[in-house]
């Protein structure tokens, strides 16, 4: 992203800085409580006792100070800061409360047996070991790219469009810290699929407008006969949509926000539409309104012509299904980055009605890509990052198979 574009972003106001200080103070107090419980369990067996616990507490605050200073600010943090500041912070925010809860439960259970310390250490330490094992597995899970081939059977699809192949990637969350090898693998998978069209269903960048630069470096060479199309995701909005959109368009990507575009394939016209994102409803943006507007999105699409809609947040799908949209492609959920596919469950299932996989309402279909990368920390269990290859086929009944 050009320096002039970054300079045009709104600078943090004093009230915004104050809010970050307030949030940081709350997190510090929460971490102190966790360390107090952990210390109550381990102080008697740790060399230096409470003094060592205090030192560990202060040491754990260091990443938070960097995060509080940089997160949400006008200047994108460096790759080093994201790797050695942001990432340890997120890891600790998962570990500390889990160990504290284990320690507290052990203390309480052990009281009647006069073995509170032993049980507390056993539970807290066991949880810590399980956590470290899980983090290791989840790290490798975040690098195991899957290429999922699906067939979308669509009654509305003209026979001439049979075999039309769309590759979908979503939630790449690219920043300067993102693994270049992983991004090269994504590009290789897309190119190997030989798609007619490439679609990116939001969250291209990782929270900062300058992240368009590494995104462009990774995906700038992508091409397909019908082109490359992207829509806005909530993190693209948070980063500063005007700048992100300009950067995507500079790459030659067609960007759709509450609008549709027509394609001609084998002599038949069909349409691709892209919605805005709900984040645009409450995050002020510059020149463009990014909030979703379903009627506007479909306004140019003739009722009798085939169309596909891209909607980052699958919460928009019911409104699209009511308008008989044949196929909607979404992302956003990441499947919670922790899923049990055989049970049809993911961490996102607790928060979203449509959280993972594919859904059907009468003749309208939805597919939710689990994300092609990760957000926060490299953590994925039971849900690999995915490049989705979708082949469209005419059929008497609607279904997604594969």
TrEMBL record:
Q: Which residues cross the membrane?
A: 23-43, 49-68, 89-113, 119-140
Record has Hydrolase as a keyword: yes
Question: What gene name is listed for this protein?
Answer: cpdA_4
Q: Which UniProt keywords apply?
A: Hydrolase, Membrane, Metal-binding, Transmembrane, Transmembrane helix
Which residue range or ranges hold the Calcineurin-like phosphoesterase domain? Answer: 164-335
This protein is called 3',5'-cyclic adenosine monophosphate phosphodiesterase CpdA
Matching entries from InterPro entries are given as: Calcineurin-like_PHP (IPR004843), Metallo-depent_PP-like (IPR029052), Metallophosphoesterase_sf (IPR051158)
Looking up CDD domains in the UniProt record yields:
MPP_YkuE_C
Q: Which residues form a coiled coil?
A: none
Q: Which organism is it from?
A: Herpetosiphon gulosus
Its domain of life reads Bacteria
Under Pfam families, the record lists: Metallophos (PF00149)
Q: Where is the signal peptide?
A: none
């Amino acid at each position: 992203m050009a320096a002039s574009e970054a300079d045009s972003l709104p600078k943090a106001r004093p009230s915004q800085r104050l809010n970050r200080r307030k949030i940081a103070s709350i997190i510090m107090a929460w971490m102190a409580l966790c360390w107090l419980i952990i210390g109550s369990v381990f102080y008697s067996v740790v060399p230096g006792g409470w003094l060592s616990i205090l030192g560990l507490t202060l040491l754990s605050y260091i990443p938070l100070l960097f995060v509080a200073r940089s997160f949400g600010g006008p200047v994108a943090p460096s790759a080093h800061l994201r790797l050695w500041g942001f990432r340890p912070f997120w890891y600790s925010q998962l570990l500390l409360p889990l160990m504290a809860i284990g320690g507290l439960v052990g203390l309480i259970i052990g009281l009647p047996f006069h073995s509170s310390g032993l049980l507390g250490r056993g539970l807290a330490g066991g949880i810590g070991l399980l956590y470290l094992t899980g983090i290791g597995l989840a790290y490798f899970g975040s690098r195991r790219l899957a290429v999922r081939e699906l067939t979308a059977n669509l009654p509305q699809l003209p026979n001439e469009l049979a075999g039309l192949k769309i590759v979908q990637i979503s939630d790449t969350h690219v920043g300067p810290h993102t693994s270049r090898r992983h991004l090269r693998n994504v590009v290789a998978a897309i190119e190997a699929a030989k798609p007619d069209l490439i679609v990116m269903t939001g969250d291209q960048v990782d929270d900062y407008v300058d992240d368009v630069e590494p995104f462009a470096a990774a995906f700038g060479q992508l091409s397909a006969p019908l082109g490359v199309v992207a829509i806005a995701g909530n993190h693209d909005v948070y980063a500063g949509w005007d700048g992100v959109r300009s950067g995507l368009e500079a790459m030659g990507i067609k960007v759709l926000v509450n609008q549709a575009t027509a394609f001609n394939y084998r002599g038949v016209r069909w349409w691709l539409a892209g919605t805005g994102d709900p984040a645009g409803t409450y995050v002020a943006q510059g020149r463009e309104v990014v909030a979703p507007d379903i009627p506007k999105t479909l306004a140019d699409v003739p009722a009798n012509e085939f169309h596909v809609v891209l909607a980052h947040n699958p919460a928009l799908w019911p409104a699209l299904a009511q308008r008989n949209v044949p196929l909607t492609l979404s992302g956003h959920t990441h499947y919670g980055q922790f899923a049990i596919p055989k049970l049809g469950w993911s961490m996102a299932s607790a928060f979203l009605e449509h959280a993972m996989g594919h859904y059907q309402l009468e003749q309208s279909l939805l597919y939710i890509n689990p994300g092609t990368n990760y957000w926060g920390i490299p953590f994925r269990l039971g849900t690999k990052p995915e490049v989705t290859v979708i082949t469209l086929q005419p059929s008497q009944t609607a279904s997604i198979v594969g």
